Amino acid sequence: MQKPIQKSGSKYKKRLFFFFFIIVLIFSMLIGGFQYNQERLYRREKLEYALNIYTQQVHQLIQKKGLNEKLNFSEVDTLRALMPDNDIRISVITNKGKVVYDSFVNDIEKLDNHLNRPEVQKSIHSKKGSNIRLSGSTGQSYYYYSKNYYDYFVRTALPINESVMDFLKANTLFFYFLFGLFGVTVVFLIYATEHFGNSIAKLRKFAINAAQNRDIDPNEDFGKTELGEISNQIVKIYQNLSKTTNALSQEKEKLIMHLQIAQEGVAIFDKNKNLILWNSHFIDYINYLAHISSHNYQELFELPELVEITEFIDKNSKELDTNYIPNVDIISTKKTITIGHKVFLFQVVVFLDSKFEISVNDITKVENEKTIKQEMTLNIAHELKTPVTAISGFLETIKDNPGMDENKKAQFIERSCLQINRLSNLIQDISFITKIEEANELFSIEDVNVNELVKEMLTDFELKLLEAKMEIAFNFPSDLTIKGNSELLDSIFRNLIDNSIKYAGEGCKIEIKNYFEDTNYHYFSFTDNGVGIQEEHLPRIFERFYRADNGRSRKMGGTGLGLSIVKNAVAYHKGRIFVKKRKEQGIEFFFSLKKEI
Ligand code: ADP
C-alpha cells in the first residue's frame, strides 16, 4: 500500500525558520556579548588612563625627591589637591609591600602589608593592574589602579559612587541597534523561509511522488527563486526520463510479444549463461534436444551437440571482456543440428555487453522438402531421358535410312508419337503436382457436384472401358456437392479409374461408393477386383514416381505420378487416403473429402 504524503510543507517551513532563527539569535548574542565586553573594557581603559596620569605625576614627584630620602608627602597631598578628582585616593607602596603614603589613612604604620592586594599582584606581573573591591583599610569600595615602578608601586583609587558606576556601564545604544537588526533579520527570515520552504516542500512532494511512481503534476509551480528554477529543471529532466523509460518499456513489451508469437525458439542469456528472456518454443525445442532437469538451462552448454556454439560464445565473450571491439556489426554464427528425425538450425548472436541470443528453428520440413525436391529433379530428369532417347533414336534411324520400308517407318513414327504422348503426360503431371504443392492458391474454390463430375468423366472413359471390357458402378446421390476445386476433384477419380483400367486387367469391375457422410466430411471408397498390388509396395504407393510394376506401368504410359496427385488432391480437400489389398481380389482405396474447404 502506498503511504499518503504527509502534509509537511508548513512543518518543514517552521523547522527551517527555527533553525535559522537559532543561528541568527546565537550570532546576535555573540556579537552583543563581545561588543558589551569591548565597551566595558574601553570604559575601564579610559578610567585607568586618567588614573595613570595621576600615578605618573606621583611617580615623577617621587623621582624628583627620591623615595629614600625622607619624602615629604605633604607635596603629594598638594599634588592631589591640584588633581581634578578631589576624592582620589593615592597610595605609595614599597616593593616589599609597606605602605609609605596613603592619602586617606593618617596612621599608615598600622596598615598591613599590601603586596597581596589583587591590583598590586597584577602590577607585579604586568606592570599595571586594577581591581574593584572593598578597601580593607577604609571600608569603602574603590576602583584601584596600581603601577609598578620596580622600587615601589603607586596606586590610585577612585571611590565607587553612582557617577563612577554610570561611567563604567557599557553604552547600551549598540544593543538597540543590534536588536533592531535582529528584528529585521527575523522578518527577512520569515519571508525567505516562506519562499524557500514552499519550493522545498513542493520539491519534496514531487520527489516522493516520483519515487512511488505516482502521477506528477506537470504544471506544478516551484516559484521564481533559484531553487524553484532548479526544481523546474529537475521536473523537466524527470519527465524526459520517464518518457524515455515508457518508450523503452513499450519497446520491450513489443519485443516480448514478438518473442511469444515467433515461430522460432528464442532466448537471451546474460554473460554468465543465465536465462533472462525466452519464449515457449525455445523451451520446447531444448527439451526435445535434451531433457534439461531442474530448469537449469546452463546445462545446455554442456551438450556435445552444442559444443561449437558454446565455444563460439565463450571465445567472443572473453574477447569482449578484454575490451576488444569487433570490426563486424554483428557477432553471430549458425549451426544445423540433426537430432532423431528432426533438423534444427541454431543461430547465436553475441551482443557487445557479452549477453547473447540463441534462436532455434525446426527446419525439418524445409530440409525434407529440399531433399524431396532434389529427388524430384533427379527423377524428372530420369523420366524425361527415356522417352527423349527413344524419340531421337526412332527419328535418327528414319533419317539415316532413307530407303527404309514404309511399314517399318510408319511403325517407328507411331512409336515416336507414343513416346511424345508419354512425354506430354509426364510434363502435364509434373506441372500439375508442382501447382498443387507450390501454388495451390491458384486453384479456385466453387461448389462442385461430384455426381455430375464423375458421370461426365465416365463418358470420357467409355471407349477405354469398352476395350478393357470393364464396368463401373457408382451410387452417388445426385446432389453430392463439395465446395472445392473441380480440377483437383476430377484428378482424384480420373487417376484412380485410369489406374484400374491400366493395371487391374480385362473384365474387371470398378465400384465407387460414397459410403458415409458426417457434418464435415464425405467418405468414399474405390475398389476394383483386378490384380491388385503386392503388400510390400503398398506403403510407398503414393510416393512420386513409385511404380509397383515398373515394366507394366511404363508400357501403359504411366508417369508414376498418378497416385501422388490423388494424395495431394485429397489433402487439398483436407481429407486422408488409405490403400488396402482386397480380401477377395484387387485393391481398395478409402478417402475422405471435406464438404467445404
Ligand atoms: P502410374 O503412372 O505408373 O500409374 P501411379 O502413381 O498412378 O503411377 O500408380 C503407381 C503404381 O501403382 C502403378 O505403377 C501400379 O503399379 C500400381 N497401381 C495403381 N493402381 C493400381 C490398380 N488399380 N491395380 C493394380 N496396380 C495399381
TrEMBL record:
Matches recorded under PROSITE patterns: HIS_KIN
A GO molecular-function annotation: phosphorelay sensor kinase activity
Transmembrane region(s): 16-36, 173-192
Enzymatic reactions: ATP + protein L-histidine = ADP + protein N-phospho-L-histidine
Keywords: Kinase, Membrane, Phosphoprotein, Transferase, Transmembrane, Transmembrane helix, Two-component regulatory system
Histidine kinase domain residues: 379-597
One record GO biological process: cellular response to phosphate starvation
EC number in record: 2.7.13.3
Domain of life: Bacteria
SUPFAM superfamilies linked to this entry: ATPase domain of HSP90 chaperone/DNA topoisomerase II/histidine kinase, Homodimeric domain of signal transducing histidine kinase
Keyword Transmembrane helix: yes
GO cellular component terms attached to this protein's record: plasma membrane
PANTHER family: PHOSPHATE REGULON SENSOR PROTEIN PHOR
This protein's name: histidine kinase
